[in-house]
Design brief:
The protein is mostly beta strands. The chain is built from one helix and 30 strands. Pfam families: HmuY.
């Protein structure tokens, strides 16, 4: 009997081993560039270039890239971070990560013809990672018109409260990440004199009857409700128009008559888990016909600091941070981005009234820069089938929230909505169709790092 039992155990173990041997192996883990071509025009100082892996690695994994410039010299006209050694760039994919990146930076005061290029080639990756098919990337020092690719937008840490806003330029296959809390005020570069507050941090502002900053004290804040997180309809009066109408900023248009420009108190916001900061008092004046003068201080301070901000027609806004007291880089030049993925204030209903509400995963179009877009339901035409002939019957809107948060669901069937996609016409007239692939664990993605695909439908004239 014992012999029979032993035989049966051996048979069972053999059967289990056979099952294990028949389990399909994991697919190859490959490393490759996000696209085969990227543009870097004269207005772009630096670009972050990413390498993506099929899945996260278990251990730190070195990757080697050959760098071959044409018409431009490493060290004097451009550099990389990390630096190269004998035209070789060495990167390491950290354990637990599925990407690595490096920064390409142009030298200051660099004048190029636009014919210059840099070829990056992945030459090796440490086993078990293999080099994928998109192993070569050509960076052109001019604008390109991409035929399309996939991009993973880097919202940074924080998941649903990701710390970054990400600006994507479809035609140039590029994306720029900026910390949401890196700025406080944006100064409009258009013909009007307007100032925006930081919607992506849930900031709020209110005007006082005073026009002298030194006469504003903590007493002016007694009983003052300056919040966008208390579900009060009145909160919509404390923020910029959520549709992005530049004529409806909470800070009134800056008057040519100095005495008309009132003091505002600003709550810098706590939206998207931004750390609370002290309230600030500000006053903005015109600086001639081409700029602004910002006066600002803490509520209890008796003196104030001054910052001069010039209009720059290449940008929608120039931005200022109260933390540094300087103009800071935020969004790219207005012709160099099409959509912004971020968190921000919008509106919802409490059943009776509209109230301000902070939404994660908002996607704004560059409506001030001439971008328009449309939402297309797959019940009318599929993403794959949408072509140039469909453009004539597509209604493009100059609405900041054409995409908004409509592209994903956070209740019910959580994940990217597969019943819709978007068509985007950039300022140059290039038309792209775009769909989201993933944004959270339920659809195979990672919260805070949405993945999207886009394809050129028609090139602009």
């Amino acid at each position: 009997m014992k012999r029979v039992i032993v035989c049966m155990l051996i048979l069972a173990v053999s059967t289990l081993n056979a099952c294990k041997e028949s389990d399909p192996p994991l697919p190859d883990n490959v490393v490759q560039f996000e696209s085969a071509e990227q543009g870097m025009d004269a207005a772009t100082k630096a670009s972050t270039i990413k390498l993506k892996l099929s899945r996260a690695v278990d251990a730190a994994t070195p990757v080697t890239i050959q760098v071959t410039p044409t018409g431009i010299t490493y060290g004097t006209q451009f550099s990389t971070t990390p630096a190269t050694t004998r035209n070789t760039l060495s990167l390491t994919v950290p354990a637990g990560s599925n990407e690595a990146s490096f920064t390409l930076t142009k030298a200051d005061n660099l004048f190029l013809s636009g014919s210059e290029t840099i070829d990056f080639a992945i030459t090796s990756a440490t086993s078990p990672v293999l080099v994928g098919t998109t192993k070569d990337l050509k960076v052109k020092f001019t604008s390109i018109v991409s035929a399309g690719t996939t991009l993973t937008l880097d919202g940074g840490t924080g998941g649903s409260s990701a710390v970054n806003s990400v600006f994507a330029d479809l035609s140039n296959n590029s994306a720029t990440s900026v910390r949401r809390a890196a700025w406080d005020l944006g100064f409009y570069s258009g013909t009007d004199f307007r100032v925006i507050i930081n919607n992506t941090t849930g900031a709020a502002a209110i005007a006082l009857a005073k026009n002298d900053l030194t006469q504003v004290t903590a007493a002016d804040t007694v009983g003052l409700v300056l919040s966008t997180s208390n579900f009060d309809p009145a909160g919509l009066k404390l923020i910029d128009d959520v549709s992005g109408d530049i004529t409806k900023t909470v800070i009134a248009g800056i008057s040519v008559t100095d005495t008309d420009n009132k003091v505002f108190i600003i709550n810098r916001g706590t939206g998207g888990s931004v750390a609370a900061k002290g309230w600030i008092k500000i006053r903005v004046l015109r600086n001639g016909t081409t700029g602004y003068t910002l006066q600002y201080a803490g509520i209890k301070e008796t003196t104030f600091k001054t910052v001069s901000i010039s209009k720059d027609a290449a940008y929608n806004f120039n931005y200022v941070s109260f933390d540094s007291g300087t103009v800071v880089d935020v969004e790219p030049a207005k012709t160099r981005w099409d959509i912004e993925w971020t968190g921000g204030l919008y509106k919802t209903s409490d059943g009776a009234n509209d109230i301000p509400y902070y939404f994660s995963d908002q996607v704004y179009i560059n409506h001030l820069g001439g971008v328009t877009a449309a939402e297309i339901l797959t019940s009318t035409v599929s993403y794959d089938a949408y072509g140039e002939s469909n453009i004539a019957t597509t209604t493009f809107k100059n609405d900041k929230h054409v995409i908004g948060s409509n592209w994903r669901a956070t209740t019910g069937t959580i994940g990217v909505k597969t019943d819709r996609f978007y068509v985007i016409k950039d300022a140059a007239g290039n038309v792209y169709k775009l769909k989201f692939i993933s944004f959270t664990t339920q659809d195979g993605g990672e919260r805070g790092k949405p993945k999207l695909e886009f394809k050129l439908v028609k090139q602009g004239a």
